[in-house]
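Example 9 (inverse folding). The structure is encoded as follows.
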């Protein structure tokens, strides 16, 4: 406004021009921060760029038109706010500055949000670690005891001994992952196989279980990301009295992401994700903390089957 007043020498004229400019700036800032970036940037960058240019051009045109044909009618005297080259250049430059400020404002606010999420994740991780530490009372004594039971049991029942071994592996997995941010994907898959094998013991009829994966050495994932979906299928997709239970799992490692798919039969009691307790809700919260919106978790029902799919970035 000071610049305009010095150029024109009319305070009221300068205030009117400054008001129009402020409305122009506010439109650009709010449109970018509240609509364009959150709605279009991640969905379609081409549409985002085109819409941004059109918005910038439209706001600039309206500002030039208002300053020339409305504000000018209220005041007399010569001014460069008359659709001249100087006027157009002034509007474009100041609107561009507003756009730059909008970009900076948006990304600074996102940085604060990310920092807040990271702190919250660290807090939750600390609470989890404390709980795990409390549960680690004499772990060596526990595993030594399990080993002794395993050898004694193996003499009489090799099958029961094998189950004890799998239980020992599961318990060791829980104890060893508490301080690790990521584990080899083959470790996660082995854990899933062990809990599936132990689940067989609870059923009167065997569960048809198929696990396909193209696991690669050197691929690491956060621990226990896939397990809640398996637990969900075991909890809601198994009828202990039914002879046709099955669970199919497919893990695919792609160039940019890792996909985990689990499929099981639906029984008369409908399988509904929102009745599965807090497991999937906690999983979604954890995925958001780890990957923001750069992941996919969805489910669907096809005939007598329920399918859940998780996709995470390959890092």
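The amino acid assigned to each position is listed next.
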């Amino acid at each position: 406004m000071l610049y305009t007043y010095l150029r024109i020498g009319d305070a009221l004229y300068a205030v009117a021009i400054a008001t129009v400019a402020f409305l122009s700036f506010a439109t650009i800032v709010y449109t970018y921060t509240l609509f364009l970036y959150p709605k279009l940037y991640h969905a379609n960058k081409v549409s985002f760029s085109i819409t941004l240019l059109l918005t910038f051009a439209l706001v600039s045109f309206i500002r030039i038109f208002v300053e020339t044909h409305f504000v000018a009618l209220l005041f007399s005297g010569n001014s460069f706010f008359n659709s001249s080259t100087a006027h157009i250049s002034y509007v474009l430059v100041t609107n561009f500055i507003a756009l730059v400020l909008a970009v900076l404002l948006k990304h600074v606010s996102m940085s604060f949000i990310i920092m807040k999420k990271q702190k919250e994740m660290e807090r939750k991780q600390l609470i989890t670690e404390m709980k795990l530490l409390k549960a680690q009372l004499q772990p060596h004594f526990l595993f030594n005891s399990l080993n002794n039971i395993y050898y004694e049991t193996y003499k009489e029942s090799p099958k029961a001994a094998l189950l004890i071994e799998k239980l020992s592996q599961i318990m060791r997995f829980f104890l060893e992952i508490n301080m690790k941010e990521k584990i080899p994907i083959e470790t996660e898959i082995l854990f899933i196989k062990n809990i599936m094998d132990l689940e067989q013991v609870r059923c009167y009829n065997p569960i048809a279980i198929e696990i396909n994966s193209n696991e690669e050495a050197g691929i690491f994932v956060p621990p226990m990301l896939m397990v809640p979906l398996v637990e969900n299928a075991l909890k809601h997709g198994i009828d202990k009295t039914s002879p046709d239970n099955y669970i199919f799992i497919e893990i695919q490692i792609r160039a940019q992401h890792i996909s985990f798919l689990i499929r099981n039969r639906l029984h008369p009691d409908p399988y509904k994700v929102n009745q599965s307790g807090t497991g999937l809700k906690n999983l979604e919260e954890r995925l958001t903390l780890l990957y923001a919106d750069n992941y996919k978790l969805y489910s669907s029902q096809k005939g007598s089957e329920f399918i859940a799919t998780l996709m995470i970035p390959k890092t």
